[in-house]
Write a sequence for this structure.
């Protein structure tokens, strides 16, 4: 499991499963977010990977499911309940060679999360309706000795996720099939105006003091404690971060929003991207036990319980479900179907996302420029696509 | 009787051994090393050679692969990232070599004799050496934080203009790593030099002083030639350790900002395990291995040559 500031939600449910099935026990191995993909690949190749492990859907991350399925490391879940947990739009995240290899366990909106208690104290109105609103709030937070947003600028995943949220309204809302077009070579990062605008906006926000001092050296582990303590008002993360914030500081209220477009456009990423897979090299008895656990986890009651712990949406309910309180500001995104699976999940190599994340840090330190970052991403894409 | 009985024995020694005798003696002198030799060759050289062949492939860690000739090496030497990693590795290695030897030698000279608390101070200075490089690096990462002790100290003494985001500054970040490396290993070098200084007779230094040699001349012409073996050991160990630098970079900067502190070792790790570019990673490993062998041989040749001369 990925290690966070609180226990992994699946681990919490695993404890409950063990109570109901005393003959099944779990030995949970938490691995830090930054190293998870590297550790998992090493373990799989070394033959000592866990029997059940966390992966993300698609193929754009180091711990993405599809390359692992292609390499034969995963158990085929096509004949299990896993296949029912995908929609037509999201099936590509777990499908390879016509088979389903992973089981999603919650539905993840990628959001801009805020400490609502602190925002109210500062007189900041949420949700923001435009980028100008955001920039104004940056000044308000600064005057109070806080930062509006927390950015882990030395961490590729946080830089990448932040940029993708800005790109949701600048690239994907206008062109939901942008990834398909990039795969065909019809568009590039460098010649897409929305990508340029997204990176330029990050630099602008940095210069206007929207992020904490020294954001370019920030680490992801400090984000939740800083937002929970109120030294930063918010940050960019999957919606499940609300669960972590509540566990660290239960006395404050938190809310998930979507970052607005320049003129208030509404679009966000939401997908069943958190998944579990079974190790194909585990012995049959353990695979059988793993399949039973996955089936139990997919039962509506347990799927809902897991979502409550993770702070995301229940995989059984999907995007059409009644949303928990923290998602009050993005409910219309789902009812109006202004969302799609996270952009990078369809990218052909983790190196493209890494180039984006590293490039953002270079932009903040002045070591590179927007055009160079986008061209480097194109080069990484072309190399991966062969 | 004793003399006469000894004579044949002497004659036996002087008698030229036959070829089979020589062979069996030679075999008897090294046969016991065969098991260790075989294991060593298998574990070190065969494994490295097999791994090295992947440097000429496009293997992604999973699935099939194709041989791509020298493409991976061309990518290393033609790309900014590969060239930068080589230059950073050399900068850190030679900076580490010089820093640890200069400070280690100065501390050894200072704490060799005279100072009352020298035994206590030696322990204090050696202590960081026994700590994990990762643990040390995380402590220093706290020190280097934007609101950390270093910037607070600079602010308190009126040096606000010196304050910066140390770990994400394109210029200072590599120096922050070098400082941590030198800080942690200076104690080890000090101990090596102290061992050498223990073998320098005090009378020699006193005689040179009576002859009118000043402190620097005494060190240059009397002390240093006698501790040259310590210099050879310390410089070789530090150079190899510097070329392999990994832990401190990963814990302090992760190779950033924007690849400014990437080294060959960190690139090997990232390319291989993070991006699944096993072929490219193997090529980087091979470059690092060759670099360590060549530089170490040159360095040992230079220092041992001077040792014979002295």
């Amino acid at each position: 499991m990925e290690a966070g500031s609180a226990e992994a939600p699946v681990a919490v449910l695993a404890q409950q499963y063990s109570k109901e099935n005393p003959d099944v026990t779990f030995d949970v191995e938490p691995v830090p977010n930054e190293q998870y993909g590297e550790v998992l690949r090493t373990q799989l190749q070394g033959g000592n990977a866990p029997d059940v492990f966390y992966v993300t859907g698609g193929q754009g991350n180091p711990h993405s499911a599809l390359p692992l399925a292609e390499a034969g490391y995963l158990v085929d879940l096509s004949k299990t309940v896993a296949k029912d947990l995908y929609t037509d739009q999201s099936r590509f995240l777990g499908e390879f060679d016509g088979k389903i290899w992973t089981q999603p366990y919650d539905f993840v909106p990628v959001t801009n999360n805020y400490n609502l208690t602190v925002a109210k104290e500062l007189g900041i109105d949420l949700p923001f309706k435009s980028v100008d609103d955001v920039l104004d709030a940056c000044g308000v937070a600064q005057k109070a000795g806080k930062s509006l947003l927390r950015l882990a600028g030395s961490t590729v995943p946080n830089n990448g996720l932040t940029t993708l949220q800005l790109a949701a309204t600048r690239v994907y809302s206008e062109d939901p099939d942008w990834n398909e077009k990039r795969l065909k070579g019809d568009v590039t990062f460098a010649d897409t105006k929305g990508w340029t605008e997204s990176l330029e906006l990050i630099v602008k926000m940095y210069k206007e003091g929207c992020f904490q001092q020294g954001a370019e050296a920030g680490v992801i582990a400090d984000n939740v404690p800083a937002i929970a303590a109120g030294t930063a008002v918010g940050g960019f993360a999957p919606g499940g971060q609300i669960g972590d914030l509540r566990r660290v500081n239960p006395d404050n209220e938190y809310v998930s929003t979507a970052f607005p477009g320049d003129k208030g456009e509404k679009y966000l990423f939401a997908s069943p991207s958190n998944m579990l897979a079974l190790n194909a090299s585990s012995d049959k008895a353990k695979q059988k036990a793993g399949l039973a656990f996955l089936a139990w986890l997919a039962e509506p009651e347990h799927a809902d319980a897991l979502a409550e712990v993770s702070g995301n949406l229940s995989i059984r309910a999907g995007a059409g479900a009644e949303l928990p309180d923290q998602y009050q500001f993005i409910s219309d995104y789902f009812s109006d179907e202004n969302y799609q699976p996270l952009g990078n999940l369809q990218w052909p190599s983790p190196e493209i996302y890494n180039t984006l994340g590293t490039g953002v840090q270079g932009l903040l330190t002045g070591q590179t420029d927007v055009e160079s970052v986008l061209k480097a991403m194109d080069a990484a894409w072309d190399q991966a696509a062969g | 009787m004793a003399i006469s009985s000894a004579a044949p024995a002497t004659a036996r020694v002087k008698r030229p051994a036959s070829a089979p005798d020589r062979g069996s003696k030679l075999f008897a002198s090294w046969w016991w090393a065969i098991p260790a030799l075989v294991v060593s060759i298998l574990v070190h050289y065969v494994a490295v050679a097999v791994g090295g062949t992947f440097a000429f492939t496009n293997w992604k860690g999973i699935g099939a692969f194709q041989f791509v000739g020298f493409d991976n090496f061309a990518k290393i030497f033609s790309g900014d990232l590969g060239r930068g990693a080589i230059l950073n590795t050399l900068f850190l290695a030679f900076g580490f070599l010089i820093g640890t030897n200069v400070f280690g030698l100065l501390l050894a000279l200072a704490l060799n004799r005279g100072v009352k608390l020298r035994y206590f101070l030696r322990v204090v200075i050696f202590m960081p050496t026994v700590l994990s490089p990762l643990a040390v690096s995380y402590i220093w990462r706290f020190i280097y934080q934007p609101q950390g002790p270093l910037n607070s100290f600079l602010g308190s003494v009126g040096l606000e203009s010196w304050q910066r985001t140390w770990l994400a500054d394109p210029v200072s970040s590599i120096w922050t790593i070098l400082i941590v490396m030198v800080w942690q290993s200076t104690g080890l070098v000090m101990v090596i030099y102290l061992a050498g200084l223990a073998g320098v007779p005090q009378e020699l230094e006193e005689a040179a002083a009576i002859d009118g040699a000043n402190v620097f001349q005494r060190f240059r012409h009397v002390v240093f030639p006698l501790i040259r073996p310590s210099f050879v050991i310390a410089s070789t160990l530090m150079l190899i350790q510097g070329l392999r630098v990994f832990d401190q970079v990963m814990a302090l900067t992760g190779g950033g900002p924007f690849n400014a502190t990437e080294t060959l070792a960190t690139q090997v790790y990232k390319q291989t395990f993070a991006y699944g570019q096993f072929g490219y990673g193997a090529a980087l490993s091979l470059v690092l291995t060759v670099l360590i062998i060549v530089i170490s041989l040159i360095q040992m040749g230079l220092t041992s040559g001077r040792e014979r001369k002295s």
